[in-house]
């Protein structure tokens, strides 16, 4: 320990190194339940690439594991510390280095908060689409590490589609540049895409070149109430089948609607079994909403309410934004799943989750990015009750199994981390797992970067 701290101090300013155990303990874990976390030896908050390189060279020399972190808003334990590790928190590397309206790119450090970047480019008439629910807190580096998504994915896609190039400090301290600043480029293997979603297991992202879009018009929102989740999912299928491209298509099941009503007094009818929110940011959103409203009615919607203006749209979106906070009030703890299925199987996924809730005697609410089939079943449980905690974990596993049975994946945007290691092996299969471990070994032969995650 003394040798480690001595070497770290030799290349870091005093304020960048934290060793007080009461403080380092606060960096031990992210927001996931049921994920073990160790005790870090130290926390480092670098402000430069050179300081990150110094940390990695020290870690390699002394064979000390390193756990990269952003804002720790993750939900899979990917940022959890291991015993004796160096926690490398990138939140102080928070500069927007460049915004180019001509090239439509932004160059940023990993600690830039998503919302900060979005507002900065918005002032120049540009748009950075990836918008995780935690966008006011989460960092671009964390978004890259977990390949984050968000509400707008149905039209604009996820983080991976906006990362053009990266500057990465490798496990031995070398600096790697991947990708490009240009609109096109196919030189060599796509190492940039490989780092996106790697959860800090291949290298430390210290700079990113991000693609931007022109800022779209303000969106208008429609809310549709349904007598069943199956009817709402049928409407989703009709909307996508007819070729509509909404900027947002979100679903909340009965449990979630009731939780939101109880917490925020939204005034949603108790008879609502599912609420579908659809938005368009097209030149004529009112016409698009009218067409979608007819499709919702054809699927059995009992009420269809299109917004007249942006202010009313924001009011309608408050219900969706309140979903997770509302479900967190149901019990003392939650587990948020992240299963993504083909859109055509969305109804089966939601109905199956309801059956799992009944089987285990638990409250499980589902909110979903319905437009891309990404469901977030939220298991509510009393963490002080051992039996209820056991049932919560068992139900979580059954939900993931259901997703795979329906042709889906165990994670659409939250990542694997510690929470889903066993399930990643099941999804990838023996050959896929062997190749992924080989990639990990090529980049990190000593296994120092975020050990115990993914595999």
Can you put this structure into words, describing what you see?
The chain is of the alpha+beta class. The chain is 36% helix and 20% strand. It has 15 helices and 18 strands. The protein has helices at residues 2-10, 21-24, 49-62, 114-122, 140-146, 153-156, 191-195, 229-241, 254-264, 285-298, 310-321, 323-328, 346-360, 386-405, 421-443; strands at residues 17-18, 42-44, 66-69, 86-89, 96-100, 105-108, 126-127, 163-169, 175-179, 204-211, 213-214, 220-226, 248-253, 274-280, 303-306, 333-336, 363-369, 374-381. Helix 8 packs across helix 10 (285-298), helix 8 (229-241) runs antiparallel to helix 13 and helix 13 (346-360) runs antiparallel to helix 14. 52% of the residues are buried.
List the strand order in the largest sheet. Answer: 15-12-14-13-17-18-16
Q: How far apart are the first and last residues' alpha carbons, in Å?
A: 27 Å
Biggest beta sheet attributes = 7 strands, antiparallel
Poorly predicted parts: none
- Tell me the number of helical segments per DSSP (H or I, 4 or more residues long): 15
- Strand coverage percent: 15-25%
Please tell me what the overall shape is: globular
Instruction: Round the Cα radius of gyration to an integer and report it.
Output: 22 Å
- Counting helices, strands and paired strands, the structural category is alpha+beta
**Average pLDDT across residues?**
95
Helix content: 25-40%
Number of strands: 18
């Amino acid at each position: 320990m003394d040798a480690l701290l001595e070497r770290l101090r030799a290349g870091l300013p005093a304020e960048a190194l934290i060793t007080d155990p009461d403080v380092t303990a606060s960096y031990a874990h992210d927001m996931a339940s049921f994920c073990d976390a160790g005790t870090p030896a130290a926390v480092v908050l670098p402000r430069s690439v050179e300081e990150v390189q110094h940390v990695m060279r020290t870690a390699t020399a002394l064979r000390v594991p390193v756990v990269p972190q952003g804002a720790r808003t993750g939900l899979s334990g990917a940022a959890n510390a291991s015993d004796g590790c160096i926690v490398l928190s990138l939140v102080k590397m928070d500069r927007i280095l460049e915004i180019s309206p001509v090239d439509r790119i932004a160059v940023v450090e990993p600690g830039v908060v998503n919302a900060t970047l979005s507002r900065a480019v918005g002032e120049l008439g540009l748009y950075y689409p990836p918008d995780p629910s935690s966008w006011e807190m989460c960092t671009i580096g964390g978004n890259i590490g977990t390949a984050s998504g968000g509400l707008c994915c149905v039209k604009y896609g996820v983080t991976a589609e906006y990362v053009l190039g990266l500057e990465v400090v490798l496990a031995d301290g070398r600096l790697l540049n991947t990708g490009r600043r240009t609109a096109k480029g196919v030189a060599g293997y796509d190492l940039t895409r490989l780092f996106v979603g790697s959860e800090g297991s291949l290298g430390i992202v210290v700079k990113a070149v991000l693609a931007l879009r022109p800022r779209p018009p303000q969106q208008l929102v429609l809310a549709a109430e349904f007598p069943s989740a199956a009817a709402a999912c049928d409407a989703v299928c009709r909307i996508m089948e007819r070729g509509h491209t909404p900027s947002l298509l979100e679903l909340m099941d009965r449990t979630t609607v009731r939780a939101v009503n109880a917490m925020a007094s939204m005034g949603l009818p108790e008879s609502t079994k599912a609420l579908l929110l659809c938005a368009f940011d097209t030149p004529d959103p009112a016409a698009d909403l009218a067409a979608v409203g007819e499709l919702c009615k054809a699927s059995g919607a009992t009420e269809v309410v299109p917004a007249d203006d942006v202010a009313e749209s924001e009011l309608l979106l408050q219900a969706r934004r309140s979903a997770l906070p509302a479900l967190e009030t149901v019990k003392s703890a939650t587990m948020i799943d992240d299963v993504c299925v083909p859109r055509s199987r969305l109804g089966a996924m939601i109905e199956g989750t309801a059956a799992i809730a009944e089987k285990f005697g638990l409250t499980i609410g589902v909110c979903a990015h319905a437009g891309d089939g990404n469901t977030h079943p939220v298991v509510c449980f009393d963490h002080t009750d051992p039996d209820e905690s056991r049932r919560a974990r068992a139900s979580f596993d059954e939900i993931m199994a259901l997703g795979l049975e329906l042709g889906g994946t165990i994670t659409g945007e939250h990542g694997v981390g510690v929470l889903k290691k066993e399930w990643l092996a099941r999804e990838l299969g023996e050959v896929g797992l062997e190749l992924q471990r080989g990639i990990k070994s090529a980049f990190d032969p000593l296994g120092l970067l975020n050990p115990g995650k993914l595999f």
